[in-house]
Design brief:
The chain has 334 residues and is α+β, with helices and mostly antiparallel strands. The protein is built from ten helices and 16 strands. Helix 7 packs across helix 10. Bound molecules: 2-oxoglutaric acid and fe (ii) ion.
Length: 334
């Protein structure tokens, strides 16, 4: 095992009582002023509410974004009253609860960049419910219960997120999210050099391909039929970023060196994987250029007590995806 054991994977902060009071009044302000408006409309005014958030949280997220002080941040301590949030939904389409937790996640996410969504995932919702769905046990998605293989979020797409936020509503069985960071790998210069080449194909995951929105689904089908070659490592060669999703990935046909290097980095990441069990009130923010994440297998009960996360994705530059968005201020990518 060659993982750099001492490197910090997660920078942590726990909200104090006075932090919580500030956050709750920011949420009250959102609910008061933006009553009845969509989350898209509320986000247009996020700048009004961000200054109301606790400074240590904003400082930590700014240092995470601008100085890359850690590949992940865990902010804990936001209240999740079990009786208020109700049962874990049996399907993401079921009635939404957890409005305060959603606003909290959206505000912190908005401090990092611009929140967006995919038309092919959960009807383009900005906050997604990650819950097990009966009948989908074998799915390689957030709705399955088999091991969710580690991956770069939406690694197949050029407009994948910079950051991924996972907020825990419920996790009674302490089922871990698994994380590994690219900084902690030891790869030979030859392997790094190969991984820096656009010699790999990543295809969309099954969830994007089964969307009901036909227009958006066709765009994903095109990427399925004709993926654009991408590099596994990019950015500064001595401290590279990462784009990888082995389950949906292959080297270019006939490229044996690319195949070997992919096997090598996959093995390295595997050996660096660390479990993090998110507890209610935890918000885990992942740098999608620096870490991969997955989830351990579990057994679902489908009785309202299953594991339940809320997920938000963030880009540093929404404008770059204008070609797949209907309007300038549209946050949903097709
Ligand atoms: O459930 C988790 O911990 C991770 C889920 C995940 O990777 C996702 O929804 O993209
Ligand atoms: Fe994921």
């Amino acid at each position: 095992m060659s993982c750099a054991a001492n490197s910090q994977l997660i920078a942590e902060y726990r909200l104090t009582d006075s932090d919580c009071a500030l956050v709750q009044s920011a949420i009250d302000a959102v609910l008061g002023e933006s009553a009845g408006v969509s989350q898209t409309d509320f986000l247009r005014h996020a700048h009004r509410y961000l200054p109301m958030l606790p400074m240590p949280v904003l400082d930590l997220l700014a240092a995470f974004r601008d100085q890359e002080i850690a590949p992940a941040v865990l902010i804990s301590g936001f209240p999740v009253p079990d009786e208020e949030i109700g049962a874990t939904p049996l399907h993401w389409r079921d009635g939404r609860t957890g409005e305060r937790q959603e606003i909290y996640s959206l505000l912190l996410a908005a401090s990092l960049g611009q929140v967006f969504a995919w038309a092919t995932l959960q009807d383009g919702r900005l906050v997604q419910d990650v819950v097990p769905i009966r009948g989908q046990q074998q799915a390689q998605t957030g709705h399955g219960t088999i091991e969710l293989a580690w991956h770069t979020e939406d690694g197949f797409h050029r407009y994948r997120c910079d950051y991924l936020c996972l907020f825990a509503m419920r996790n009674n069985d302490h089922i871990p999210t698994n994380l590994a960071c690219v900084d902690h790998l030891s790869l030979s210069p030859r392997v790094v050099d190969t991984l820096l080449g656009e010699r790999f194909l990543i295809r969309p995951d099954t969830e994007h391909l089964k969307a009901e929105n036909a227009l958006a689904r066709r765009a994903m089908e095109r990427l399925q039929d004709d993926p654009v070659p991408s590099a596994v490592l990019f950015g500064a060669p001595e401290r590279p970023y990462l784009r990888i999703d082995p389950i949906y990935m292959s080297p270019l046909p006939g490229d044996a060196e690319a195949a070997e290097s992919l096997t090598e980095i996959t093995r390295e990441l595997e050996s660096c994987l660390q479990p993090v069990s998110l507890e209610p009130g935890d918000l885990l923010v992942l740098d999608n250029y620096r870490c991969v994440h997955g989830r351990a297998p579990f057994t679902a009960r489908y009785d309202g007590t299953d594991r339940w996360l809320k997920k938000v994705i963030v880009t540093r530059d929404l404008r770059k995806s204008r070609d797949v968005r209907g309007a300038v201020d549209d946050r949903v990518l097709n």
